[in-house]
Amino acid sequence: MSENLPKLREDYRKQNKSCFILGATGESGKELLKEIVKSQIFSKVTTIGRRKLTFEDEAYSNVIQEVVDFEKLDEYSSAFQGHDVGFCCLGTTKAKAGEARFIRVDHDYVIKSAQLAKAGGCQHFNFESSNGADQGSKFLYLKVKGQVEAEVQELEFDRYTIFRPAVLMCDRQESRPAEWIARKFLGPISYIFPTSLSVPVTTLARAMVNNAVIPSDQKVELLDNKAIHMLGKLEEQKKT
Hints:
Layout: H1 5-13, E1 18-22, H2 27-39, E2 44-49, E3 64-67, E4 85-88, H3 94-97, H4 99-119, E5 124-128, H5 140-153, E6 159-163, E7 167-169, H6 177-192, E8 198-200, H7 201-213, E9 220-223, H8 225-232, H9 234-239
Parallel strand pairs: 1-2, 1-4, 2-3, 4-5, 5-6, 6-9, 7-8
């Protein structure tokens, strides 16, 4: 597969597809946007968020920014129209936002966005979920992620890809003490068991881009942490 990746990207590029990214201000979304711009596989790239982003690199000059009020998304349905592919990296935490706000962002905003994307013609929807997501879980975070996975599936996109990364290895701008401790603890372990407990956010972003260009006859794809590692390192496999 690694040998075919350049051709797959070129073939995909020729289809002149457009995409949108939700959550481009977060660590995953920011890295995903960077990878998408670098890959040039989409003829049109749009970010959808609550505020405008500032880009210093000229490579981002053609990125379209749609500023929306997530509390009134129906009024911004036009922002979701005309995209072939959607990437959702939207999310917060209970610790940062409180339980009610967390559910509002991670569930309500995501589901409403997916509904508008479907109505707007989106064919391939990509959702960043979490390792252990289960709508029957006793843990709120995993329960909500599991609920969203299931509810988006009910919308019946032509292709629906769920990414379930483990702990994301990155240097967040915001302070999340629990994640900081986890990353410090998992760092050394990741060298021994690289695909088990964590994944670099750069690997996740590359996996999302690589997966988009790889044809699939599966209507629903569920990619666990190991699969994310494999997809995100296809370029490295080619070099070796």
